[in-house]
Structures
1.
Amino acid sequence: MNCDQSTYCKCLYYAANALSRNITKIAEDSFASVDLAPSYAFIVMTVNKNPGVNAGELAKIMMLKPSTITRLVEKLEKSSLIKRFHEGKQVLIFPTKTSMELDSKIKEAWAGMYNKYVDLLGKEFADKLTQDVFKAANLLE
Amino acid sequence: MNCDQSTYCKCLYYAANALSRNITKIAEDSFASVDLAPSYAFIVMTVNKNPGVNAGELAKIMMLKPSTITRLVEKLEKSSLIKRFHEGKQVLIFPTKTSMELDSKIKEAWAGMYNKYVDLLGKEFADKLTQDVFKAANLLE
DNA sequence: ACTCTTTATTTGTATATACAAATATTTATG
DNA sequence: CATAAATATTTGTATATACAAATAAAGAGT
């Protein structure tokens, strides 16, 4: 798009949502190879790396709300990609055989996504942008 | 959040979505004063500025899919904030008395949102980031 | 004028995400 | 110890957004 609607180009809400939709599309295409939506793939990776992580920690790591984690995790459990165990008031989340077998394929898909957007943005710009966007997300939290 | 999950900090998908959620929250708070979710407020502003814009153009301007525009616009029509007229295969969208009366309040809310995130990010960073994010969104389209 | 293709919009359906309220457990206080 | 407060998770409900298929209108080629 060009910048005719000049006001919008100056609005972070507008720009950030457009970016989010477009990068999500790229991520979805990449993770299609493991038949997972990106958020689910991220959770599987995180749980594989941190077996026994609890739901609240997972929410913080993923920057999602606890209720969202519940929703995502209950679907992953149905597909046997994680297991949940109640421990007191906490819920601990563990990988499964399936999820661990899938791990390297997920990481490949992840690398594929990275290569795709680096290809479109250029490595330098992509890396700097990611850093800045991440910084902004934290400042606005 | 800190950068313990170092991998995520390097992922544009992750960062962009986090930013999108956080800035959307700020936008929702600002536009609450006019009782509109941000996307609706943007459409009203755009239609007020471009009376008779058609749905497809609106989709392009907003960087949303036509089906999404249909959905948003049909709700706005129910609240009498736009009117639709069929002209051949196109649908032309017009402001209403109500939407025009609301225009300055929406713009105030918009300015409030801008001030809020500039306050949190600093003006220089905010403006540069918006520009970069917008550029990236276009490159990834 | 009639079919074929292209363009514009809508509809049916699905998904990620969130908020507010509910539930369950732990900790603190009187 | 018993009740109150705090913490962790889930549930009910709502929303924005998209895709794929359906519809409708316009244009092109014969």
2.
Amino acid sequence: MIEGPNISGIAALIGDPARANMLTALMSGKALTASELALEGGVMAPTASSHLQKLVAGGLITVRKQGRHKYYTLAEDDIAELLERLMGVAARTGQMRVRTGPKDPALRRARACYGHLAGNMGVQMLEAMLRDGMVAGHAGALEIMPLGLEKMRALGVEIEGLKLPVCKPCLDWSERKNHLGGQLGAAVFKRLIELGWMRRRPDSRVVAFSAEGLRQFEIHFPKDGKIL
Amino acid sequence: MIEGPNISGIAALIGDPARANMLTALMSGKALTASELALEGGVMAPTASSHLQKLVAGGLITVRKQGRHKYYTLAEDDIAELLERLMGVAARTGQMRVRTGPKDPALRRARACYGHLAGNMGVQMLEAMLRDGMVAGHAGALEIMPLGLEKMRALGVEIEGLKLPVCKPCLDWSERKNHLGGQLGAAVFKRLIELGWMRRRPDSRVVAFSAEGLRQFEIHFPKDGKIL
DNA sequence: AGTATAGTTTCACTAAGATCGAACTATGAT
DNA sequence: ATCATAGTTCGATCTTAGTGAAACTATACT
């Protein structure tokens, strides 16, 4: 009869529009305050407070108090992966938003996904890394290869002190392919911003490439027909 | 501000206990009738009817009418994967059911996951297949190798006419590792039952191995220390 | 034809929970 | 000390959606 874990509780938490919007905002990987999340959720402060308590109690997000602010983040990687997967199903079944924002194409092109690069560019990057043998896949897990380590060092990516699993695939809702996730994904993301190749749009998950950044990106992670 | 697909609709559909139980029941891969699903959901027929309509409208399940019965199944593979992932999060955050059923250990050991073998045994099988080079992983996708084809034929698995992707990994909520999914996973599952190595428990996702089946399984998909 | 079963529709009831104004606490700034 | 801002608690209101009894349609069996 009734078997296995109780999924309805978790799903119900995500099932409220205000909470779903808050969680989606947290997918950017940035820690957000209660007020910011109230804005994202489209509700007043008391309502947001109540929602946030429920999300914390449900283990979906965690809080860190800093001065008079409270910073919220997604609790674990698996939450981000779950949300990304939900977006995949929602996109496939045509449950896009009523008013499609102008940022939608930009969002599909490049965006932050819980601290790593997602969208068309993110998928292209992982595909290039696989093609060049920088990483290799095993049963849905990803492993970094010596060539990858070398390349990452050359790019100046901080790879020391990363926790296992260093890299893992993350299914992309807009591309329906994997992009690079895990600690390595986050480290690369950080480095690409440091290098000035791309920049986060404020208050958005959208990531914008500079002209030079795009050029460099295409050299290091070419679309196909690897020449390097 | 508000970006990306609208996840709250899908999540809300799964967020109701009755609907969640129905969906969990459908994870067995069997097509179930409205009455059976009413029983699984713990609600009366009219209520179930209403729920099923919503699930169909939301694209989570599909109906097939046959005589005076209506058979419901999960709409797509990605729904099953989403549910399995939800179970993973639910299990991690300790949202197990209030009254843990006696079948819980059996469920963790071997169960049907939308038509393929999941649980400890399922994970063991995929790991053995990877170790022996029967399948290989690429960026979260799985590919069958010549050796795998040969072995599958030897076992009598029906591998002709499978649609791509033939096999793919599916994250297991109880093991937090991947098991073999996709068309190949379903074909192997079917064959193992045909061979009498295992049998489905009625009205449950639990799969029980026979003594001989277990022996054979351990020979073909050994835990580790491949000898074959 | 008559009866049984599968599933749906209608409807009224109920309960859960989302919402926010107002008052409150806590921290920081001047 | 005083004021401003961040966040919470309380309480009242309101909406939404789940629920099943009763009556209905549709298919199947005999």
